[in-house]
# Entry
Amino acid sequence: MKRMLACLTVALGLSLGGGWGTSAQALTRGGTFTFGAYADVIFFDPVYQQQTVDIWFSLNIYDTLLQPTADGKGLQPGLASACELSPDGLTMTLTLRPGMKFSDGSPILASDVKFTLDRGHSKEEGGNYYFLLAAVDSVDAVGDDKVVIHFKRPDPTFPQILASFYTAVVPEKQMKAAPGATLREKARAFSEHPIGSGPFILSSWTHGSSFVLTRNPYYWKQGEDGKALPYLDEVKVEIIPDDATRILKLKAGEVNGVEFVPFSRAVELKADPKINMVLFPAAKIVYIALNIRPTLKDGSKNPLADKRVRQALNYAVEKKAIAQIVTYGMGVPQVTLPPASTPLAMTDKGEPYPYDPAKAKALLKEAGFESGLDLSIYTLAGNADNAAELAAIQQMWGEIGVRLKILPLDSSTGIAKYRASDFQMRTAAFTNDYNDPSQIVSYMAYFPAYESNRSGFNDAELNGLFEKSQVETDPAKRAALYRRIQEIYIDAAPMVFLLDTPYPVALDKKTQGFVQLPLGNYLFSGVHMEP
Amino acid sequence: MLSASYVGRRLAQIVPTLLLAMVLVFVLAHLLPGDPAIALLGERATTEAVERTRQALGVDRPLIEQFGLYVQGLVTGDLGRSMILRVPVAELILQRLPVTVMLTLMAALLAAVIAVPFALIAALRRGSALDALIRGAFQLGVSMPVFYIGLVLLIVLAAGLGWFPVGGFGDTIPDHIYHLLLPALTLAMSLSAILMRNLRASLIEVLDAEYVTFATAKGLSRKLVLLRHVLRNAAISTVTLFGLHIGSLVGGAVITETVFAIPGLGRLMVDSIFSRDYQVVQGLTLVIAVLVSLVFLAVDIVLAMLDPRHST
# Structure
């Protein structure tokens, strides 16, 4: 167990977290939980999932080798009961829990784990997240219960990746037996009636309308009452795209819970005695992306190339007011680059640029923009939250002499312009896909990967620190590297820091034990319905 | 009398309409800015992944070639595959077609059931307070947007009084009908207002006609006069209008299906446009064009039966 601890703590510098907490009182077993979702799953496959919705529901059907703790920060054993890492960080040995079965009753073998990891690793067969397994050299199945992973280089994020949707274990034989010429086609057929080892089985699915998850009798994990999870017999997910209708369904008692409650409605639901309005901490930031290249695509000079201008823009935004306007007080000011729920996020320093219009003006004056400047921002057309946010920011920046031109675009065009670095500013948001700061840092701060979120920000020291952090297996050293990375990034301000926002979920009073992880995943195994 | 050659002629006229619809929809779908591969993968996808996906989807080929493949598929009855859901478009549409057809038929039926009696009452009592009341109430129906009527009905009749389910489609046929009543009523509201006003005006015109006075003078019962002579003749323009508006019912279904969480063609259309799923948008538009053409054909046949002069 000691060595196991070492394996789990490499990524985090945290000890093993507790279980998924539910209160210790007597639990009611059985029953159905009906959940109103805004969109349907497209592809129930860990590797070929096509959208966030697919990922968020998948951990109820498929199980992972390690599991996140309920706060999303720590890790605990999953299908693997032990995990050992060699001192050089190049070999990881996973031991499978004895006697485990897939939902069709067949045993979970080390060869299934190998198949799972090989499938995700292969560029041809893998999905869009194959880079998550980039450090893996090869995977060996030793006997039926041991898996040995050989790495090309140490990868401190790997334990977190073993707890993510992407490496959830699928049965080799059953998937290969599905009809189809390629593995992707087979996976498509397989995913209509998937076989996993999660707490539930997909028992029916009417695309675009609803799907039903029923209890997996072979699930290994125990509940608070000492008996096997899940508590529920069934989870029914109904697809209700309209926000108002979803909430009405909850109020009428036709569903027990709904996701994506608009913040504007959450206030009203909080006051409703029959409803339990919950805000789950999310690994999500809402910010303004900047392009800091000296010249823009249209050839014009870009004032954002001057750090003082970027810092001034940051100082001139009153984040608490934005939190009120956009999230009705349910979001909080962003404190650092990664979402605050991310391990190693630097959350002890408070807001990086507290509201200070005088300082902002002084910085602009220093940068030679005493008489003001013109800036433009792209935003998603028809998005009410963005419109409200920008109306407020336009006014706040107006006070320091910034004349902001707001240009609404449809989503596809906006993304295309972004990918071509053809923007000055844009409204944006980021959610972690796995629980480690390396994702957002590689995406937004490390130039070689994505030109730092297409901002053009390129800091040699930061790039070097990040490369070091990617192979640093000592938790304390890795934490120090990330601290420095965040300090550099904050000082350079290649974004306007705005908010950390939660996931608003509304439940009826019967529903207990509902968990949404910071990464968005729903965990229905701990849900129980109390009369 | 209704002749087979008339129906044949009308059917032949549908063909160029559909061809034109096919070309238009292909061009329009591809004029939409944005790339399906990017819509599919999101902004964080690598350039390599986007290229791979573009190739897999076939959107990297010249437009003319894409159109050729599309027409070639259509000839063999293949509407293509959804780029996003990766299933045959025909399968997707067939799954959802019955839902929208059922919703539209129920809405059309409800609209007629509501419009005809009120139009009769209003026309017979023309100028009275009752007439004004009916016209006022229907005016309200036509001036409210569909999504608003839908939400009001949901809040009052479903969430408030609990008489109807709040959206969804149910599992059995009686359950489907029960679930579709409110959305059908929502769709029927504005249509019934249009029909009522039109029918009332025609009824008044016909009621004043000499042949009606003559029929009454002949000693025919009031009921017989109203049904055989008045309603039948007044219905001609209303049936035409009704047919024209069935097309807009399908359009209204796009909104209604979203508000009421009904898995029909309208919602499929909205989802597919947002995700740039060209194949599905094309397939849907074609199917809807066929449906509307068939409705127009049915209207012409009904008109020919009401008034034989129409079939010449």
